Structures are given as structure tokens and as C-alpha cells.
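Exercise 7b. C-alpha cells:
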């Protein structure tokens, strides 16, 4: 009897692990909504409870264990490995990261809001104070400084606080409902010049329809869509590159 019960428990545990580790992740690979619910709600909350830690804290541990301090490439590599093989998290990802790198190389920006080449000036914003605590530690390994606060509050202060005249490149990858109002705010504040590039992530999944409608139909922008996938899945997503025409 006890042996039968033991076999049943072992078999049940093995089945649950297989469902968690392989079956369900494979099943949601092609459906954006299901992928986000599974990874960003169910799995995250379960692991938060089991480990008594948060996903950002677990990611930070992976960076500190596997990345070299002061080496941004090793930090990105550690994050991508953690998110692809350990625990999914929404970030640029390795596939769209290549597109981002190509745009950065193409325009060779000197002033960037959220990503930079060597010797350029980077300003990255984080609204959530809990995430900011972790983000500061993660990016400290890459030698980047983070500013905590809402984008809508900081954009009007950029010129005064950081001596910014205009941005060469702005990478939009924050709250999707802020893409459009923050773009318009940067226009109003004179932070975009002729040739400034906006590069927006996750324009398909979760999606930014109001932003896409604006930049694709406004005579002030010339836009191009780069088809890709939601990070670490097979769900279609992409980046929208919009050049400000003045």
C-alpha cells in the first residue's frame, strides 16, 4: 500500500514537473496572451512564493554569479541565459537585441535615452522604486547610471538636470500606454531634432496601437517596422523605428 502510494506521488510529481518545465511552456510559445499569463503571472507568483524572493532579485543573483563586473556584454549574456533557460522575463531579448544593436551602430548616437555605444551619454528611467533598487545593482555591473522616477516627470527636466539639448536615440520599452504621451511630451520639450530616432519595443505584443497609428501617419515621422518575436517565444512582436523629420 505504502509502496503504491509512493509510486503514485512520485509519478504525480514527475507529471507536474513535466507540465511546468516543458509541456505548458511549449504550448504557449505561439500565443502572446497565454505566454504572458503563464510566465508573467502564474510562474512568477509561484516562484515568488516558493523562493520568498522576487523575479528581479533572482535575475540579479544570476547576473552577480555569471557576469563580469564592468562588462556590459557579459551582463546582457547572463540576463538572456537566465530568461531563456531558467525563468522567462520581459526584456529586449537576444533576437530583438540584435536589431537594437544594428540601429545603434547605424546612427552612432552621442545622447541616448536608454541605450548607448562607448563614450555616449545614457539616461535610463525606472518608475517602480522596487525595480529601481534591483536595476541599479544589475546595471552597476555594466557601468550605467539609473534615474528613478516617472518618464512624464523627468522628460521636462532633461535639459536642466542633464544638460541635454536633444536626443539622438530614444529607446521606448516601458509602460506601453506611455509611448505616445511621452513621445508628444519630448516633442513639446524640444528634445527631438531632425534625424532623432525613436525605437519602440513590444509594438505588437503586448502592443501599442495608438503609438503606431501616430508615428505611421504623422508627417513628422518616417517609420519602419522590424518583425521579430516576443522575447524567448515564437509569438510575433517587433520594433518600430521612427525617424523624426522635424
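Sequence design result:
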Amino acid at each position: 500500500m505504502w509502496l503504491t502510494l509512493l509510486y503514485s506521488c512520485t509519478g504525480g510529481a514527475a507529471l507536474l514537473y513535466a507540465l511546468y518545465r516543458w509541456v505548458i511552456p511549449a504550448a504557449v510559445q505561439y500565443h502572446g496572451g497565454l505566454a504572458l499569463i503563464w510566465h508573467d503571472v502564474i510562474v512568477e507568483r509561484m516562484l515568488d512564493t516558493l523562493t520568498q524572493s522576487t523575479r528581479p532579485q533572482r535575475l540579479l543573483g544570476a547576473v552577480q554569479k555569471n557576469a563580469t563586473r564592468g562588462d556590459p556584454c557579459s551582463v546582457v549574456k547572463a540576463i538572456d541565459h537566465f530568461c531563456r533557460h531558467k525563468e522567462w522575463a520581459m526584456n529586449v531579448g537576444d533576437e530583438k537585441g540584435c536589431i537594437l544593436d544594428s540601429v545603434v551602430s547605424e546612427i552612432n548616437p552621442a545622447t541616448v535615452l536608454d541605450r548607448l555605444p562607448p563614450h555616449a551619454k545614457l539616461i535610463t528611467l525606472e518608475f517602480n522604486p522596487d525595480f529601481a533598487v534591483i536595476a541599479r545593482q544589475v546595471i552597476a555591473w555594466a557601468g550605467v547610471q539609473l534615474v528613478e522616477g516617472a518618464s512624464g516627470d523627468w522628460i521636462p527636466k532633461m535639459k536642466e538636470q542633464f544638460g541635454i539639448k536633444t536626443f539622438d536615440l530614444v529607446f521606448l520599452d516601458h509602460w506601453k500606454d506611455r509611448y505616445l504621451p511621452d513621445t508628444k511630451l519630448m516633442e513639446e520639450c524640444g528634445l527631438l531634432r531632425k534625424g532623432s530616432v525613436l525605437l519602440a519595443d513590444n509594438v505588437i505584443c503586448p502592443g501599442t496601437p495608438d503609438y503606431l497609428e501616430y508615428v505611421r501617419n504623422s508627417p513628422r515621422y518616417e517609420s519602419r517596422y522590424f518583425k521579430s518575436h516576443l522575447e524567448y517565444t515564437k509569438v510575433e512582436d517587433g520594433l518600430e523605428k521612427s525617424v523624426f523629420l522635424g
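Instructor comment: Residues 90-244 form a domain with the Rossmann fold fold (CATH 3.40.50.150). The chain is about 55% helix and 20% strand.
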